[in-house]
TrEMBL record:
Gene3D superfamilies: 1.20.140.150. GO terms for cellular component: membrane. The chain crosses the membrane at residues 141-164, 171-194, 214-237. Keywords: Membrane, Transmembrane, Transmembrane helix. It is a multi-pass membrane protein. It holds the Pfam family Claudin_2. It is found in: Membrane. This is Claudin domain-containing protein 1-like. The keyword Transmembrane applies. InterPro entries: CLDN1, PMP22/EMP/MP20/Claudin.
Amino acid sequence: MVDNRYATALVISCVLSALATVYLAVAVGTQHWFQYSSPGVRGEANVSDLRSMHEEFKDGEFDEKMYSDTLFRLNGSLGLWWRCVLVPEGAHWHKEPQDIKLVMECRSFTLAQQFTPKYKEPGNHNSGEDMLRTYLWRCQFLLPLVSHGLVVMAALIGCCACLCRSISPTLGLGVLHLLAGLCTLATVCCFLAGMDLLHRVSVLPDGVDGSLGWSLYLALVSSPLHMMAAALLIWAARSHGQNYYRMTAYRVA
């Protein structure tokens, strides 16, 4: 028999866990982790340059310097699995700025590209591999998968515990949710550190500004939700265990 306080804690933790999982899934699947604001088109040379960048971007070739420069110049946005740019609809580059309708074009990172090494000078393979940026990039895409895996494992154990009418595995569920929250937080930290290092080795064009996107904030919200669910589960497990031992001691006495 489970006390009402513990049952309430379990229900709230389930809701928090579900919200955190949905938020993280949406964050991983969207491309608004980091966004660039670029100046408008200026002159024929600028138009040709931007059009050339757009054509290379559409080809889907993976070169860090190429796609980074394109993101810098074409109001790009970057996610864990996506890179996107804003271009004039129908490639009408010569229209007045107020007449241009911008559309977003995206290309996904393949699994092989996620494991591609980063170099000390982006685009220059002879500069040597930048181990720190390489592993930050790999961690930022692997850690969300680990977080989801931990939550799925916790859900399966929780279902089995419900079928067995036992609250004993609750402590383990709390630990799994705590680890999931830490993995999500580490994802955000790896992404921010990787972007900071990229901007140190890349020269941003004049007038280009960068800002954090809503996808990153959604992932950042997911982490404390997991941790709050973990705190409730651990509290319920420890409190129920203490009450159980006291009741057992009372009956023995």
